[in-house]
Amino acid sequence: PLYSSAASDVYKRQVSVVVARVKNGCSVSVSWSGGHGVESVSANAGSRGKTAVMTLATPDTAGTYTLRTSEISSACSGGSAVTLSRAITVGKVASIVAKLSSTSGYVSKTPTVTVSGTVKSGSVAVANKDLTIVLKRGETVVKTVSVSTNGSGVFTKAISDSLTAGSYTAVVSFDADTTYTAKSKTTAVLKLR
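Now predict its structure.
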């Protein structure tokens, strides 16, 4: 098995890895697959069938990446030749709570549609986070706007374009950065008549 460090270590921009069930004296290398990071580390397995702890820098952008070993030969694995891998989330995961509301359910009254909600990482508000909001009628994009969360992780964006009758949703999202992984949330349907 491929063991990685606790998630809190990943925030420090490094991950510690131990590869187990490898025969004594066999060498194993570990690196990020897909070219994420150029660093590769190696260690030999000891008499207990585990490598020493190997520390590897994480990619700069938050997201989920795959940590992979070099091929471990059948002589070293005690069975078939094998390459081990493990998905690792780098950075913090945030959640979006979003709702879509309207000043009227009737397009004849020229309603203003409002997208509002919060962004949090656990119980901590994500302040000053740039968001993209895509208002859709069915699968058709009606409008794309930007908004940022305030110091409490709250956002509100009013859209007062001329709307036609139909079922609307808003997709609220943000891209990955050095701290948070990318996230997207679709609101419940709002019907306008």
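Residues 5-11 have pLDDT under 50 and may be disordered.
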